[in-house]
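Internal ticket - ligand job 75, FE2/S2 (inorganic) cluster:
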Amino acid sequence: MDVAALMRPRKLCLCKGVSREDIARVVRGGVRSFAELVQKTQATTGCGTCIDEVYAAFCQERASCEVTDQQQLPL
Ligand code: FES
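stdout (structure tokens):
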């Protein structure tokens, strides 16, 4: 069980207060890579436990993901 995932029903990234809607808005605004999303929202830059959920939301909003996106993760 992913306890961290259960603790963030409204915000995908609790440390930086980033919601699913925030991610959707940024992608609609033209963000094309995960690194750019992180730069604009600061999501995943705290404890980092949200990275899977944030990346999945990014992929769903873009309707695709590229392997190169994952290689740019700031971890
Ligand atoms: S919950 Fe996103 S960095 Fe901590």
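Auto-summary: The chain has five helices and two strands. The chain has one domain: 3-71.
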